[in-house]
Input
Amino acid sequence: MAQQGPNEETVLSPSTTLAQKLEWLIQNMWPADASPPRNNVETAAAIAAKTGEDISSTTVWKLRTGRQDNPQLKTLTALAHFFGVPIGYFGFESEADQVDDDLTFKALRRELDTGTVRSDVLRALVELSPDTRWIIDEMILSVAAADHRRRRDRPNRDQR
Output
């Protein structure tokens, strides 16, 4: 699922390619009881510790970079368990689309709980007129697209 911003730039939602889904989950749905990963070795270790499924750092790297897009069922099951999503999220787009909004709200709730997103800002957004809210929506989509391009174009040493 993608949205078009003002410059027709695609803004990714959680359900896109398997690599993008996994990256979105790592960035937005990392379990609070697991130390944030600095690299694929730590990512694989955290998944193994929580699920008991031995996933190599190479597998994590391949999945995150799109070099592998058809992992074993046990790998998908471990990922689903670790991130707390239904296994269908990794399957057909129609199944993943049903989960997208729930995951987005869950990630937003986490951001509210940690204070990264302020509740007074969300309240103010709700209180805006529809026309003003549309302008803010377009600004957010434009900034999100620019941020996505910046992160995509910047080499990420953490994924080694």
User: Anything to note?
Assistant: Confidence is low (pLDDT under 50) at residues 1-11. The first strand starts at residue 2 and ends at 4. The chain has seven helices and two strands.
